[in-house]
Every structure is written in C-alpha cells, then in structure tokens.
Write a structure and sequence with these properties.
The protein has 12 helices and 25 strands. By secondary structure, it is an alpha/beta fold. Strands 1, 2, 3, 4, 5, 6, 7 and 10 form an 8-stranded mixed beta sheet that branches. Strands 12-11-13-14-24-23 form a 6-stranded mixed beta sheet, sandwiched between helices. It is elongated and about 70 Å long. Its EC number is 6.3.5.11.
C-alpha cells in the first residue's frame, strides 16, 4: 500500500519545520490516525524524534545518495498518512545541485507545505511564498504554515498579503519559546537523552491542534506516483549474525540498511560498549556505527570486556566494520575535547582528536579500494561525511575507499584496512549504479 503523503519544507533551516512535524505526528497519533514519517537527506537525529512522536520507525529518503529503486521501496508505507520532513531549504541539495527536497517532491508528486518563519516579516512573506511556489513547475506548493507569529494583527497582515496567491494558510503558530529543542555539535541532542521528551511532544501536539487546521492539511496528502518496489538490498550484509553496537556512543545507524540486512536473512545482535558488553560470541561480523565516542571516550577506554572482545574477534579474522565514530574506536587513540588522550581498540593505524575540531561535511561518491563484505574492489557506493573530529595520524597504505565529492572532485582515499578490520569516516547510504 502506498500511503497518501505530503512534504513539510521551508525556505531555510531554522524555520521550525522539525518541531512542526513532530507536533503533527504526535497529534495525528493521539487522534487515532495511522501516521508514519520520512526524513529527506542524510540525517540520523531527526528520525529518532519522528519515531518517538509517531511510535513508528522513521526512514530516510535521499534523492542524491539513493538509487531510484531504493527511494521507491522506502517511500512505500502502509499507513493512513505519511508526513515527510524536508532538509534545509526546499531547493537546497548537494554541491552538484541535485538531491533537494524539491527533487523528491517532483519524483513522488507529493504536495509541499511550506513552514514559514515570519518572526521578522509581514507582507514580505507573500513575495517569499510566491517565489517558492513559482520557482519550479514540476512541484506544487499546496499550503503554508506560519510560524512564530507575534500577534493576531501580525497574522491578519500576512494572511491578507497571501490571499491573492490562492495558496491556503493552514495555520499560524505563535512564538512558543517552550517548543524548542536543545542542540550540540552534530545537531539536536538525540531523542534518547531527553527525559521530558514525551511531555514536550504532547504539549507540541496541543499547540498544533489549537493553531493548525489539521484536517485540511491531512486532506492535501496524495499517494506517490510510482508503484511499490521489490525487497530492498541497499548493501550486502557484513555476515549472517552481525553484532551491532547500540547505545549513546553508537547511535548513528541508518534503519534502511539494518532492515535491508534483515531482509537478506541476517540476524542483528545488539550490544552496548558503554555497558562494557563484548560483541556476541555467536557473531560472524561486527558493526560499530557512528555516534558520540568523543563524549564517552573515558568509559570506552575502560570497557575492557568490550575492547578485548573486539581484539579477540579480529584475531579470529571476523569482519569488523566501523563508520565515523566506530572508526575512531577501532583506532589507537582518541583525544577528547579537553585534550586528554584515551587508548582505543588499537586495531587500525589511526589516532583521532576532538580537541582539534574541524567540520567535515558533504556527500561522497566512493569505490571500495579492496574486496570487502560489501563487494569486490571497485564496488561503487554513495554516502556522506559529517564530523568535527580530525585525524591526528593515519596510515592509509591499505585504504578502504577511493572517494570523490558531489561535484566529482577527487578526495583521495578514505579509511584504512588491517586484516579483517576496516573503517572510515564515510557513512554509507546505498550502493551506486
């Protein structure tokens, strides 16, 4: 079944679309609507909040990094309503100009609802909406939600200015400072670290029920214009029994990849390094996803059973794969923000530092430099980097990937391999065609 869907987008980041989406998801859930969600682009944190709000797993849709068949399969959902949160501004994409929320709207035919931060404007909002609605003829802006409205008079001025455009104003949210989420260096603080998240979501749901015509918004949703896809196979599994690190230090794993491994017959065996749990002795492979090891370096360094379990698995030639934060833990040392150096697993010739911070951000076209569980040497993949930690020392005599950015600029090699252990700062999203 292809659920009727719609996209909540905005002119830019910081317009309030994430909180508005969360509020709508919780509202519809409490109203008995079978609601699900998707998040456009490379993002781990927002989907965690979506899942908490709706009670259903949120999956990413990435028009740049995913093959069309992958997008088709992941857009399919058995629900009454599918709410899709855009990324950045509606027309913002990768450096090559592709992969925007608008591209997804054009592909699916889902209507777009603009969330507009009007805190510092009035009639000018109409010019902004007119520009966004007319910029591309292959998408349709079907509604507007005004956010951070200052007063009834402020709202009336904007509604009057928007009326000639014929695009309905679905609601006007006042300035509610309580409906804000804290953030840190990689975005919002993850949902699992919010003790009062349920109360926040319930209050947000009350706000949208009071200020947004949710029935009118629901009525805009349309099924995607493409048919359901076959079973997904984004990435071959590391093995048939994969030990997966899952706790506050290892939170960045794409659900569509984990689901894809399960669909291919793999069993996932979660374990917590922060609880000093070793990977399962029944595992035939180990996956350390990204996360925040730099915030937990001391605990990880003292987690002897976890580290010894990794070393024992490596000695048995069990495949071990680390992404971003997982890659850092497989290295020799990790320097935290205070300049304290902590010993890590020592399985890869790598030293990293969070004290010497520099933002690394962007899409990557990668090919494997050697045979891996993901395919033979030369296997094409797409993914992204997003980290502040820097490499203090790295021996890339045996690299894992050759990489280019979204424009095609050669970035050299990424990551390293030692025996059955491999990793890099690349977050894989999908195989490439």
């Amino acid at each position: 079944m292809t659920a009727p869907g719609l996209i909540l987008a905005a002119p830019s980041s910081g317009s309030g679309k994430t909180v508005t989406v969360l509020a709508l998801l919780r509202h519809f859930r409490k109203a008995g609507v079978n609601v699900a969600s998707r998040k456009v682009g490379p993002d781990y944190i927002d989907p965690m909040f979506h899942t908490a709000a709706s009670g259903r797993p949120c999956i990413n849709l990435d028009p740049w990094a995913m093959r069309p068949g992958t997008l088709t399969g992941l857009a399919d959902e058995n629900a009454d309503l599918l709410i899709v949160e855009g990324v950045m501004g509606l027309f913002d994409g990768a450096a090559d100009g592709t992969g925007s929320t608008a591209d997804l709207a054009a592909l699916t035919g889902w209507p777009v609802v603009l969330v507009l931060d009007v805190k510092s404007q009035a009639q000018s909002a109409a010019a902004l909406v007119h520009g966004f609605a007319s910029f591309r003829s292959d998408i349709k802006v079907s509604g507007v939600i005004l956010n951070r409205v200052g007063s009834p008079n402020h709202e009336a001025m904007i509604r009057t200015a928007l009326a000639p455009l014929g695009i309905p104003v679905l609601g006007a949210l006042p300035r509610l400072e309580a409906l804000a989420l804290p953030d840190r260096h990689l975005g919002l603080v993850p949902a699992g670290e919010h003790d009062a998240l349920e109360d926040f979501l319930d209050k947000a749901a009350v706000a949208v029920a009071r200020h947004i015509d949710t029935a009118a918004l629901h009525s805009l949703a349309r099924p995607a214009r493409f048919p359901s896809s076959a079973k997904l196979d984004c990435l071959p599994p590391l093995g048939q029994r994969i030990a997966v690190a899952r706790d506050a230090a290892f939170v960045f794993a794409y659900r569509h990849l984990l689901d894809g491994w399960r669909n291919q017959g793999a069993e996932l065996l979660p374990f917590s390094p922060l609880a000093d749990e070793p990977p399962s002795s029944h595992a035939d492979s180990i996956y350390l996803p990204g996360g925040y090891p730099e915030l937990h370096a001391g605990r990880l360094a003292s987690a002897a059973r976890f580290l010894d379990g990794l070393r024992a698995a490596a000695s048995r030639q069990i495949p071990i794969y680390g992404e971003c934060g997982g890659y850092m833990v497989l290295g020799r040392t990790l320097e935290d923000a205070d300049g304290v150096t902590h010993p890590m697993a020592g399985l890869l010739p790598l030293d990293t530092s969070f004290a010497k911070r520099r933002l690394h951000l962007g899409y990557r076209r990668a090919t494997t430099a050697t045979a891996t569980p993901f395919g033979p040497a030369g296997t094409p993949l797409r993914g992204h980097e997003f980290h502040y930690s820097s490499i203090a020392a790295e021996d890339t005599a045996q690299p894992l990937f050759h990489a280019r950015d979204a424009r095609g600029t050669d970035l050299g090699v990424l990551g390293t391999v030692s025996g059955s252990v491999m990793g890099s700062f690349l977050h894989i999203v999908d195989r490439a065609e």
